[in-house]
Amino acid sequence: MKDALISYEGTMLLVSHDRDFLDGLSNKIWEIQDGKIRTHYFGVNEFLERINFDDMSSSIVTPIKKENKVNLQLKKEDKFLVKKLENQVKKLERDIESIENNSRKTDELEATQFLIQKSTNKLPRFYITSEQTKCCNERMGRSYS
Q1: Helix intervals (H) in the chain
Q2: Residue 44 CB burial class (10 angstroms; 0-12, 13-18, ≥19)
Q3: How far, in Å, CA of 86 to CA of 80, rounded?
Q4: Using a CB cutoff of 8 Å and minimum separation of 24, what contacts does 81-86 make?
Q5: What separation, in Å, do the N-terminal and C-terminal C-alpha atoms of the chain show?
Q6: Are residues 88 and 56 part of one domain?
Q7: Which domain holds residue 91?
Q8: Confidence category of residue 112, pLDDT binned at 50, 70, 90
Q9: 30-43 per-position pLDDT tens digit
Q10: Less packed terminus of the chain by CB within 10 Å, N or C?
Q11: CB distance 90 to 83 below 8 Å
Q12: Degrees to nearest 5, angle at CA 66 with 65 and 72
């Protein structure tokens, strides 16, 4: 039966609790919970992995109701890990921003150096001989032996 359904090119709506049967047949899951329908665009195995269906008792997520909203409550050690990861992400984001700023400053500095070099190449060159240097120093009252 599964082979016939796999070869069928139309749309099917399957309702089954048999995971092995649904494996390979489904590419969209409609989850009905608390009177709401959520659509998941993947197969049954990925759906089960994502909701940790096989081991709900050890799942880090425990659904609780509060004011008609479903909230997720994490265990303390998981909250600590999440906070630690959030802090690491913030630090990495600051590092990236700093690198980007330094890169912009480097680009600006290189552009400035290029303009200075380009403009100084247009200036005339003066060459002073040692005699001229000696004469200037004597006029300024400096004497070098």
Answers
A1: 2-7, 19-22, 44-51, 76-120, 130-139
A2: buried
A3: 10
A4: none
A5: 109
A6: no
A7: 75-120
A8: confident
A9: 888 888 888 888 88
A10: C
A11: no
A12: 60
